[in-house]
Every structure is written in C-alpha cells, then in structure tokens.
Write a structure and sequence with these properties.
- A hairpin with a 2-residue loop joins strand 16 and strand 17.
- Strands 4-3-5 form a three-stranded antiparallel beta sheet.
- Helix content is 34%, strand content 15%.
- The termini are far apart.
- The protein has 564 residues and is an alpha+beta fold.
- The longest helix has 31 residues.
- It has two domains: 407 residues, no CATH class; 152 residues, Topoisomerase I, Chain A, domain 4 (Orthogonal Bundle).
Length: 564
Amino acid sequence: MPELRDTPDGGGAVSFDLTACAWIPVLCGDGMQQELSLSEVFARAGRLRRIVGDVPTQEFALLRLLLALAHDAVDGPRDIDHWAELWADPDCFAVVGPYLAEHRDRFDLLDARAPFLQTAGLRTAKDEVFSLNRIVADVPNGEPFFTARMPTVERLGFAEAARWVVHAHAYDTSGIKSGVEGDGRAKDGKVYPLGVGWAGNLGGVLAEGATLRETLLLNLVAGDTSGLHTGDGDRPAWRREPCGPGGGERTPTGVRDLYTWQTRRVRLHFDDRGVHGVVLGYGDPLTPRNKHRYEPMSGWRRSEAQEKKHGQALVYMPREHRAERAAWRGVAALIADRAEAPQGKDAPAALRPGVLEWVARLVTEGELERGLFIRARTIGAQYGPKQSVIDDIIDDHVDMAVVLLHQQDRVCAQQAIDAVADADAAVGALGSLAANLARAAGTNPDAARSAAWERGYGLLEDPYRRWLARLGTADDPYAERAAWQRQVHREISRCGDVLMSRAGDAAWQGRIITVKNGTEWLNSALAGKWFHSALHKSLGVPALPQTPDDGTAPSAHTTAEAHT
C-alpha cells in the first residue's frame, strides 16, 4: 500500500517504496501466487519457484532487474571461486537487505526528485498526459477479447504500474513518440523512431533452476568470464545520476548497466489511489550490433548483410525467436559449443547465449553436478509493422541436464542435436508425401505439405522433450539416440499411413505429372513407396539392419517435385 511521508512544507506526499511494498508477483514453492517487495523476494528466494509477470516479457525484464541488484549487492561474482561460495551459502543474498536500505531513496516509485526508473518533471510543451495504454503491453494489440481492459487502461495500482515501467524500458515499441521539453531530438513536438526497448531486440534466454535462488545464481555470470565485458565502473541505473529529458548514445559499462538500461524517459501521473496517466519519450538508444560482449542473455548470429552495410569485418546480431518454431527444434543454438564452429579465418556463424556458456563452464569445472537439471527458457517479443506494436510474445523452454553443456564431454549434446536432425528428416519426408498425394489428386501441394509439417512436428514435440530430459542421465547416449530414431520412425510412419488412407480415389488412380526429364505417372502407391524409402534411409528400418545406400533409395527430401 502507498504511504504518506513527511515533506519540508509539512503537507506530506504519497510514497511507494519498492524495497518494502509488495509489487513483484512470485510463484511460491507450494504453488500459491503472491506479491512481494524487493527485500522479501531476496530473503525468500530459496523458497520461491520463480517470478510470474503479467506477460512473459515482464517476467524476463523483472528478472534482469533482480540480477542487476544481485550483481551490485554482492559486488560480483568476481570469478568462479566467488560464485562457488555464493552457491554453497544458503544465505548468499543476505547482503541485499542492507544494500537496499542504503539505496532506498532511489527505489520510491513516486519520489518527486528521483522516482524509480523515471524522470522527474518530464513534460511535453503542451503538458499532455497520455493513456496508460502506452506502457501496458497486452497482447495481441487491439484485440479487445483478449483483455478486460480494452480499449483503454484508465488506472493502475502502484504495484502494477511499477512492473510496467520496468517493462517499458525493456520492451517498449518503436514509432513516433512525443517530444519532451529539453530533448534536442524533438522536431515539431515529435521524436522519430529510435528503436524498441533494449530487450525487445533479443531472443531472450535464461537458465532456470528449481528455485528463484538457483535461477538468480545460474544467471549471475562472473566478471572474469571470457568474451564478456565488465568494466570497473559498472553500476545499475539507481547508482547513476537521475536521467534528464532526452538522451544519447553511449556504450554500456557491463551487465549491471545493461540490465537497467534507460531506453525511455517516463513519468507517471498519479493520485493517492493509483496511477492514471503517463508521459513517455525516448531515452538512451542502443544499437544491437556487436553487443554480444555485453549481453549474455541472448544467442547471436553473424550477419553478412550488416557487415556489408557498415563496412565491418565481423558483425553479430541477436538471434531472435520465431513464434512458429518451438524451442526444442532450435536446441542446437542452445547447446552447440562455440568450439565446434569453423576455425581459422572464418568466425563462428552463431554464438550460443552467454548464460549457457557460463553454465557450461560451471559444469565443466565441476562446480555443478552433471545430472543437475535446468530449464532453458526462451522469451521474446515479436513486433508488427515498423515495430510500432507487439504482435506476439514467445515463451518456451527446453528441460535438460547440465551435462549437455559440458565443454569437454560433448557426446550427449551431439546426440541431442542429431536427434532434432532425425525429426527434421522424418517430418520432411512426411511433408513430401503429403505434397505428392496432393499432386496425384490434382490439389494444392504447398498447403498439404505445410499442414503435414505442422502435424509431424506436433507429434514429435512432447516425445523429444521427454527423451531429452532422460538423455543427460542415460548410461549409453548412442542407445538412446537409436531408441529415438525408432520412435520417430514409428510415429511418422503411422502418420504417413493415415495420410495415404485418406488421400481418396483421385490420388489412388493418379495422374501424369511433369518432372525434370519429361513426365511420369504419380499415384498414392508410388508416393507411399518414396515416403517409406526416405524414412528407412534417414532412420533405418526398425528391428532390421540399416538399409544399404546403393543409390537406389531416395533421400528424405527426394520427391517427384525434386525432378521437376
């Protein structure tokens, strides 16, 4: 609840102290949800399951805020030995309480001089106050049947408003924004697009443990980590001078700075009952190009287009998540070791997230048991036209034993990656079967192929997740892979047989189609033969030796369309 505090004029002012007031939603160990203050979150971290935001991106933004606090309070971890001391100490976050008390004046959401993550006195030339829609990111945008608050958000409680302020800095949309007094970038009362909030550029990844305490520690990357820049002067937003209107480009000093990066200038308008309006403008822009040395909570991909555009020899950009591609299908991006990338003059085409590199180091150096399970969470925002709206939010995960990240023992990891390739080959064969059956019947092959892909991956998703969870503790990873291939063969073969049984008389009779070297007769029988040959070649014949590759059987992706 807000409280009145004394002011020099004796009139009192409304205060909402985030160190003492409940505002962070958490899932407790008993499955109940409640809201806690910053002090309570750290005091009870070992008994909490995780944070739960109003939307998944809010959870990611709040976790990064907690990580910045933890890094600053423990002043580290400096190295892996310092981290190991924290991991072994159940009260490792006891220092956060005194730290918050020391900086309490910067954690008041409603403070007149330095409101939390806001700019005091922020105003437009016309003193406009805007709807809270500008910071509340209900998704999908403009669909009133997905939220009870459409078409406008009239009022927020202080706790929820604080969460959306944190979220705005991380994920606010781009587009034209109001120019505020004192911002030299404003023209005719407007500031033209400067990009989304920093985390909106990322394909966010975090390592989730069994408790919030474990999650915070697993993502608390040590300062001596190779490839991660952490300057001596790295500090979070609340240990910097309060931001004025406007902003400018600068380089982050480290993760404490980056996790609390002020991409926006915000000022809440409120009374003693809650928040009823907001002023929102651009703050400090930050280009994502080559920020992999500062940002450990995203994967990165090499961009030749950006290299040509900027005349740089090497450019890495964040690897964004795709809503249509489940996390398990991209497991290689999470567990493939950087050392496996081509060496020599060619740089790696992709870098896995720094937090997973850090967990890999911990298990490799024996600080984590090989059988410890973590959940690799993938969270990101998908923006619409000109990044002016949030169209979708991605929230997925892959459960795995940390041995899959081991830097020297790569057997389990390689089997996990190859198992996805098995699934891709089988689903590709299923899609080709569906396309060929459509051709034989004289219907649209593209639509049939897409539907078969969706069905095939849907059939294999849960089995793969269960298989991956077992893999890390298996005695023989190669035997587990063989068992997976048999399961894929069985599931996809059954699915293919159903497609053939439903293909109809037109596909059974077939028709002449054009191929590369002329024409040939295609019907469901021939399509089925190609399909089963492709499965046998990719996965082997169940309970029989591998089909010999004598050049007569087509590959998983060889179909009639390949000859056209």
